[in-house]
Every structure is written in C-alpha cells, then in structure tokens.
Records
---
Amino acid sequence: MVLLRPLLLVVLLAISGCSLPPFMKGSGDTAAASPTSRAPGSGPVLATPTEALPPPAGAEPAIDALPPAPLPRERPRTAPATLGPASKALVSQAQAQRKKGDLPGASVSLDRALRIEPNNPLLWIEMGRLRMDQRNFPQAENMGRKALAMSVGDDRTQSSAWQLISDSLRARGKNPEAEDAAAKARALVQQ
C-alpha cells in the first residue's frame, strides 16, 4: 500500500504532463504551441509511451498489476548474550561490592564494564539491578528497556530485562503495568 501512492503519483504526473503543450519562448500564442505547428527541434526530445500508443479501451491501470507485498518474516533467533572475560571479572567484583553494601563502588565497577562492552544487554540489566538497590526505580526501568532493545532475538536476556522492568514498576506502585511486564518475562521463558 505504501508503494502504491508514489507510483500513482508518478503515473498521474506523466499523464498530466502529456496533455500540456510544450513550453515555448515567444508571444504566448497558443497556436504556436500546438503539436502540429512545432518548429523542428522545439518539441520534447523523447516521446513518452503514452504519446506513442494510446491505452487500449477497457485496460486496467498498471497499479493493480503489482505483486502483493511480502509477509513479514519472523525475527531470527540469536545466541544468548555472554560477557567477555574482563566484563565478567568486573561484574563479579560489582556483585561482591553490592553484597558488602558498597553501592558506589559497584557502580564504578559496572561503569568500567560498560566502557568495555557498551552494547552488551547483560551489563545494562546488571546496572539496572544496582539502580534498584539504590532505589532509583525509574532509571532501573530505563536500563531494562535499553537491554530489551539490545537483545532482540535473545529470549533469555529479554526475559531478564522484562523482569527488571516489572520489579521497577512494582516498586513504584504501578502494579498492573508490572504484572504485564512479568507476564512477558514468563512468556519468553516458556518458548
């Protein structure tokens, strides 16, 4: 449907352009602009197919002859996200710091890991969990949504991201939205 509009516009412009006399310099005499009284070399260089052959009577427009649009394909599945060795060591360090109550230290460790692998959704989920511990629930939700966008095709990681979003929403008292997010997390695990 989206491709039909530009195609229809092109066809209409071509048809309307064929019905107009060519532009000629001079006094504006319409008789001089008629196709029969053209001076050699003053007309269009190329003849359009609509001028050469009139459309047959009862012919359907070419727009209906377009093939149907292809159906959308399923998203390809990707391998589950993993942490590199350096990021894994920094996440382990951050988790130990969280257990000791050193939340600023854990944040520094996770920031370092994110500088190493900024497109790893597992790091964003871990940072979101740290934000939950810091009681920064809106930022935790944002980090879960960022991880969700980065993990298309990875059901396990997306399930973890939805669970983080659910926990953040529940902590802010948005229970219906939290239940929807938790249901999405459960549905991804069951696939």
---
Amino acid sequence: MDVSRRGFLKISGAVLAVSGLGVSLKPVSAYAQPLKIKYAKETTTICPYCSVGCSIIVSVRQGKVVNTEGDPDSPINKGSLCSKGGSIYQMAVNENRLGKPLYREPYGTEWKEVDWEWAFEKIAENIKNSRDASFKVTNEKGELVNRTEGIASVGSAAMDLEECFTYQKFLRSLGLVYIEHQARI
C-alpha cells in the first residue's frame, strides 16, 4: 500500500474521529478553581532578604498566611520579586520553622524549649545587666555623655524607614552608641 505522509494523517484522523478513542469534538466545560485568597485579609510588608525594599502583599485567613505575591503598586518592584522574595511564603508556612524559642544555658551543650514570656524576660534582664555594668555618665574629660559601650546593635535590612526610626530611638534611649545597619553589609 503506497500511502503518503499527508494520506496517513488523513486516514489516522478519520479513524480516531470515527472510533471514538477519547477524541471528542464536543465543547469542554471549564470550571474555575476557588481563589486561595478568597475571604483573606491582605496587608503589605517589606521583603526581609536584601536592602532593596521590595513590597509584598501577604494574604491572611484565620490567622494563617495563605498567599504572598509582589505588590504591583510598589514603585520599587512593581509587582515583581526575585527568587528569594518569591519564596517568602515558605518563611511563614514551613513545618521546619521553630515555633518556640530555644535557650542554651551558659556552658551548656543542650538547647531546651522555653516559654515566650520567659525568653522576653531573660532578654530584658540581660540588656539591663549589661547596660548597668557598662553605663558611663561622664567621659575621661568629665563631660556628660550618658552612654553604654557594652551593647551594640546591627539593624535589619528588612525594616522599613518607620521601623528603623523607632528602633533607633529605642536604642538611643538605652544609651547605645554602637549602632549599625545591615543594608550596607
């Protein structure tokens, strides 16, 4: 039998159409999936990975993050995100993420889970003790300085301008002079 390529395609198409091997010319009904952000509250945040400050829309429903996406209204990223920013959802929704603070006693070898209130109290106690031990009212010349040189801070590129301002005010109120910011590192 001498069949050309074109003839083979015609015969194959006719056989499939007649035999009903799963090929149908009836229109297919499409059903839209419900949006995962349906009934979710949307808020904006800043990507914590670098100092560019890309804006992200976070959708939260019943206290849980259900979606993250770039904010198209942001003049910085205009809705686009890099690969790290695009994976920010995994920062909030991840079974490997710690849910409770861990504490290791001085010279200890084991970490133990502690309560959040205890952890906050311990941090506050350590800051107070360090500040009290290193606080200077006057310098060598006798000038009033009211500062502590026993505590330093490295800020975060994930904080926006208002958060940095508030954090700076808090640190200055403690008397810190060694204050740096991560955006340049």
---
Amino acid sequence: MERRTFIKNAGIAGGMMLVSPILAKAVTPEEYDFPLIDLHVHLTNEYTIDRMMDFAKTRNVKFGIVDHPADWAIRNDADLKRYIDKLRKYSVYIGLQPIDLEWTKRFSPELLSQIDYVLMDPQRVPMGNGETLSIWQFDTYVEDTEEFMKRYMAYAMEVLNNQPINIFGWPLFLPVCIARDYYTLWTQERMQKIISAAKKRNIAIEINDMAHTPHDKFILMAKAQGLKFTFGSDSRNQNAGRLAYSKTVAKKCNLKKEDFYIPKQKS
C-alpha cells in the first residue's frame, strides 16, 4: 500500500482520534498570531500544483510541496531537477520526504542544495528480524508493545541524530492497534529523548493535522525548551491547508510566529 492511502479506510481515522484530547474547531485569523503554512502537501494527477495554488489563495495559506526520493517517485538527479524546475515557477516551498536512511546517495550535493527543506518521519520501523513495520497502515500488527517501542525509539533517534533533515514528521504517532495506550506509552522520558535530539540539531517538530499528533503536553514541553514547529496536513487531496487540528492545538499552546520554522526559499 502506498504511503498515506490508508486514510481512505474510515476506520483508521477513528483509531487516530483516540490519541487526541482536542476536538478540532474553527479558528479564525483574528484568534492566532502564527504563520499559516502547510509544509506537508503532495501532488497527484488530480490535485495538481495549479489546483493546490487555488486552495492556497482561497484558504489564505502557503504550501510546501514534498515528494519521496524513491524508486517510484524521484529516482535520480534528472528526476530531482525536473521536480525543482517545475515547482520553482510557483510561490511554494520545495521539499523532500525521504522514506529510507540511504536516500541521499541517489543525488548530487549540488542538486540537494537547491531543496528548501527536508521532512522525514520514523514510520518504517525495522524490527531487527528482517521485518519492517509500516506503522501508518491500518493492519499493522504489534506483537510485543514494549519491544516495538524500543525499536521505534531507536529508529526515531537514527532519523533525528543522523539524517540531514529540517522537520521531524508525524511525531508520536502510534499504530492503530496500540493507539489506545498513547498516554501510557509516550512517557516523559521518551518524549524528552525526542525533544533533546531535535533540539541538538535544530530540527522542527511537525504538528500533523491528519494524525492529530503530537498532543498539547508534548508541544508545551518542546516549546519550553526552544524547539520550533511546523504545520503539516500530509494531504494529496481537498484537505490541503485546512489544518483544523494544527491551528487549534497551536492556539491552545499559545504558539506565536517566533515558535515556527519557516524554510528559506532557494533561488
């Protein structure tokens, strides 16, 4: 299953809502003091860059477009150059969303330097037995919860400590089968470990609108320690830029414009 297509299954949405104490509600521009930027938007044949630009105008939001450096997306320098050249004509940030640890070997440093930002999440968890769990999938099965959390944290640290990234995506997300234990599994110690690793390398934390993660306690911990945040819908459809949960939890946590990471657009 391609990443994120799982959301078409209505059951997953209910599973993700288990972890969120906040019911998204309308937040008007007068109620917040932070930039409206959705840095996690994908394009499709139906939802083209021109269609997304229409959304940007009507919803008063700026977009960051991402694609995956992978065999089925951006495979090499030629693909990456076409991707950059296509998007540079528009008022968007240009990003990449890697899904494996060796992704930079595909590209020249010169072309990578033209990307505005890199967003990566820890959702393909190696379990040490040859199996990799794609934890966004609805049917992900966790046999031993503590062993899973150990492996999950180890992989998250690999991403945070060693990958050339600007944004840590889908923070604190859990597979649906263990999502009901969100507040038990995300201990103070585990959350602090993620925050400390991100702070050490100035990596921003995504407030993910699709998954409704992270929760307000984590955001307040991270804010108190000087971390920056971004909004991300992880959308490839009509939900781009809506950001209901992201705006609501940011308002609840009193986030201001200085609390947000904004990429520098390359020329």
